[in-house]
């Protein structure tokens, strides 16, 4: 998450419309997650708070400006917008350093349409050094959502940023469920300049237990299956970009080692990667695949829902 947008257009609505029975069930589910969030904050060395006051929200807006490398006079998420979202029933979470004087991470979440038990993570970011801050912030969002009856959370991220994919799909256990082509149009924010703004929507089952096995890394057997599968597409560097197993149960797709650096130093090859990965994802999603994993060496795993596993 650090330094990369994971934002989307917020849906209208307010959490108070969520059914009472769902809220009661969500509160029960939040009990264990609350302990997880507290442990994550302790491990990251931060204090997590929901932010309501004008001064605190202004500091969060400044933090987002620093992450997205925009002038503080023109923040990507203005303080007045954040304040309005909180007033409408959303939540701004912030992670503070031990002394409480410095922001290390922040997020914004809102509910979907009235009666819908779905939360949208409008934006989330952490400092570049992270140290687990991003994970702690997401768990704080998760607790807040479960306490209000939510069942799932959605957000978007740049599918070419492998570390974000691994965080979302492996660390959190979410799944990539929708591929959005050039979602925002041109972006001049200091991070995405010169690229097309494709995004992958992820859906996170907030109440589902997430196996530590998934967090601990790659599965050797799955990597062996991948390497043995026929290549279906070539990457801009000439090596295999995508592979598909003979049973049509899994597709693998590779992303560059560091798209942010490549985009800054050599925009044309970066754009070629964008188009190449787009082709693989749009073809696979049209056939019913979803993204369920990301290896340490930069390969997505896409599976069909009937065979879905976080590999």
From TrEMBL:
Chain intervals with Basic and acidic residues compositional bias: 212-228
UniProt-listed InterPro entries: Acyl_CoA_acyltransferase, GNAT_N_AcTrfase_prd
Region of interest called Disordered, as start-end residue ranges on this chain: 207-242
Top-level taxon of the source organism: Bacteria
Protein name (record): Chorismate synthase
The species this protein was found in: Streptomyces sp. R41
């Amino acid at each position: 998450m650090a330094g990369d947008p994971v934002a989307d257009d917020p849906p209208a609505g307010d959490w108070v419309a969520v059914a009472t029975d769902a809220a009661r069930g969500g509160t029960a589910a939040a009990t264990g997650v609350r302990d997880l969030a507290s442990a994550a904050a302790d491990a990251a060395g931060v204090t997590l708070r929901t932010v309501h006051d004008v001064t605190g929200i202004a500091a969060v807006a400044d933090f987002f400006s620093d992450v997205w490398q925009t002038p503080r006079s023109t923040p990507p998420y203005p303080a007045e917008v954040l304040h309005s979202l909180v007033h409408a029933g959303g939540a701004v979470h912030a992670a503070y350093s031990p002394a409480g004087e410095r922001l290390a991470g922040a997020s914004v979440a809102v509910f979907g349409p009235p009666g819908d038990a779905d939360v949208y993570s409008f934006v989330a970011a952490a400092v570049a050094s992270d140290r687990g801050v991003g994970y702690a912030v997401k768990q704080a969002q998760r607790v807040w959502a479960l306490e209000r009856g939510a069942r799932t959370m959605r957000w978007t991220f740049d599918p070419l940023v492998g570390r974000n994919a691994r965080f979302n799909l492996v660390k959190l256990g979410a799944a990539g469920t929708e591929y959005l082509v050039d979602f925002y149009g041109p972006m001049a924010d200091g991070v995405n300049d010169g690229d097309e703004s494709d995004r992958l929507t992820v859906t996170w089952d907030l109440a589902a237990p997430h196996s530590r096995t998934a967090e601990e890394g790659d599965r050797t057997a799955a990597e062996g299956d991948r390497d043995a599968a026929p290549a279906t597409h070539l990457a801009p560097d000439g090596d295999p970009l995508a592979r598909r197993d003979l049973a049509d149960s899994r597709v693998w797709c590779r992303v560059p080692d560091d798209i942010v650096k490549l985009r800054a130093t050599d925009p044309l090859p970066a754009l070629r990667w964008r188009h190449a990965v787009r082709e693989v994802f749009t073809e696979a999603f049209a056939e019913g695949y979803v993204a369920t994993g990301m290896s340490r060496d930069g390969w997505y795993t896409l599976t069909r829902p009937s065979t879905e596993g976080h590999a």
